[in-house]
Structure to design on (381 residues):
């Protein structure tokens, strides 16, 4: 039996045969900021995925808060597990809609590397610390990490990712108020990551809240989307324990959202006559989106989570700890930059560099545990 290895050119040929005309083929990438020779067996976007996974910033996501602090236990989601869930959903949606799943996955894997310690609370605190120095926003920090801070390719090249992956990071945002993020998308791949992120965090926040005992299944019965799923579970599954019950709830919830997303997105692609990537960019509405009915149901879930999860005293108790650690570290390093590692200390003293930005790079890269331990160590000296 003759085994023929799959080369990059053969993968690109398969993409040309399978991908829709509005997708982004690896062969048509606009390239990298610094020219590199193509790899014989991996496409440009596959290399992007590999570089992100092997980066230090990606590894640190394992010990960065999603909602529950890393000190709460090992079961709850972290930035890393959230990222992997977004990646999985992005791949599935991209494959079904016949766009480039490698590009969607690369954007998904890198979309949260710019988050600081202590979750969104930490992001708000870092933004306050940087208020007079350009602020802090995790999407822009993700781009800064892959372009500058992850300097494993030497000489300030960062990860030297493709233009399309970096564009996807720039346009991925939770906020409509960030003027630095363009409002239009030039690829469906980047839109997919945006929606996959929303599906993932709504679903796993419900899962974590249920398993933490912050609310019960009965509390969810007024939510239309959840009520239908609970009724379905009761009708189809008898004699299951609570662990299985919650697992089925989250599984069905993700499936309901993804199914609606695929059907609505396919409808919009056809109704908007999307045939090319230029058509995607020129579209007046988002192409990858939920139906209006699903949006209303999802809004109910978001409102429930805000009241019963994000504002729960068990969750927000991290606020005081985060403020003490992050504000304290900023004050310590501004007063004495030599207390940072040599690389950051030297960089903060380079003419033209804003020392606040360098300190922010260092502090935002910390994990929850490291930030806490470092603050305690510094204040004891």
């Amino acid at each position: 039996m003759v085994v023929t290895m799959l080369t990059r050119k053969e993968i690109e040929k398969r993409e040309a045969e399978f991908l829709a005309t509005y997708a982004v083929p690896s062969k048509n990438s606009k390239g990298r900021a610094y020219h590199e020779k193509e790899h014989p067996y991996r496409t440009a976007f596959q290399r992007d995925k590999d570089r992100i996974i092997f980066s230090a910033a990606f590894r640190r996501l394992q010990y960065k808060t999603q909602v529950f602090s890393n000190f709460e236990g090992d079961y709850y989601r972290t930035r890393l597990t959230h990222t992997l869930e977004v990646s999985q959903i992005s791949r599935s949606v991209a494959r079904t809609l016949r766009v480039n799943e490698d590009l969607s996955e690369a954007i998904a894997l890198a979309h949260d590397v710019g988050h600081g310690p202590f979750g969104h609370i930490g992001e708000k605190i870092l933004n306050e610390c940087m208020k007079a120095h350009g602020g802090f926003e995790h999407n822009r920090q993700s781009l800064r990490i892959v372009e500058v801070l992850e300097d494993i390719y030497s000489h300030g090249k960062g990860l030297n990712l493709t233009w399309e992956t970096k564009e996807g990071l720039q346009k991925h945002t939770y906020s409509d108020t960030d003027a630095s993020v363009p409002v239009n998308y030039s690829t469906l791949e980047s839109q997919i990551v945006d929606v996959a992120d929303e599906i993932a965090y709504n679903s796993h926040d419900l899962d974590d809240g249920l398993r933490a005992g912050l609310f019960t299944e009965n509390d969810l019965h007024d939510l239309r989307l959840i009520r239908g799923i609970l009724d379905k579970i009761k009708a189809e599954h008898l004699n299951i324990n609570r662990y299985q019950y919650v697992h089925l709830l989250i599984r069905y919830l993700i499936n309901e959202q993804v199914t609606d997303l695929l059907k609505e997105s396919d409808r919009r692609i056809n109704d908007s006559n999307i045939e090319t990537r230029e058509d995607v960019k020129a579209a007046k509405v988002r192409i990858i989106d939920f139906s209006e009915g699903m949006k209303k149901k999802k809004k109910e879930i978001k409102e429930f989570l805000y009241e019963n999860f994000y504002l729960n005293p068990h969750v927000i108790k991290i606020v005081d700890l985060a403020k003490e650690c992050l504000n304290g570290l900023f004050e310590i390093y501004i007063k004495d930059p030599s207390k940072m590692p040599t690389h950051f200390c030297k960089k903060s003293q380079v003419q033209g560099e804003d020392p606040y930005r360098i300190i922010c790079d260092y502090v935002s890269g910390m994990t929850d545990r490291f930030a806490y331990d470092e603050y305690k160590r510094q204040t004891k000296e």
